[in-house]
Amino acid sequence: DCVLSAKTAMPRRRITSRDRESAVPLECSPGHQTARRYIRKGVARMINEDNYIRSLSNAIAAERQYQSISQERLAELCDLHRNSITLIERGVSDFSVVTLSKLCLALGISRCVLDHVGERVHIKNNGPKGPLLPDHMINETIAYFVDSLRKKYDISRERLGLHTGVHRNTIARIENAAVSVRIGTLVRLYRRFGIAEAYIAY
Prior knowledge:
Layout: H1 17-21, E1 24-27, E2 36-39, H2 49-66, H3 71-78, H4 82-90, H5 97-107, E3 111-115, E4 120-124, H6 135-152, H7 157-164, H8 168-175, H9 183-193, E5 197-199
Antiparallel strand pairs: 1-2, 3-4, 3-5
């Protein structure tokens, strides 16, 4: 089974009517389908998910090298193309949480700790290596987790979108397990809810 652990790391702030008035459009990051997102000035714009992705990519590359595993072998273990591993390790690919789970299980990474102050991701590599989990299991777990958090804090998809810069339709697709969420998107949602740690275990 795929298990996610949560810790509250940041205070949450309620959106006001003034926030809605100051919302500005923001285009999606390069390489993704262009869409208009509405975010509050000085809040969601301050979040740079690329910093998280780069630090996670560097940690994955370092762990692979430490274990003396080639990119070709890692790609084989994860059922990915070697070019995908190259792009991930270079930090230029906003890969999905499904791909992350494959890398974690192949390398024995047990936890990903999110540093929301330094915008970094630290990994713990004391977990067991195991067979890949089905994609739908990862997507359904993330869907349940995000939906539960949103309902727990009584926040609509529209308001969550204003806080994070993630379009409400994207949030709906995530909660319906209709899409494999990208790391950059998940970081924005986790930061909003103060999630500081996630791990995969059987």
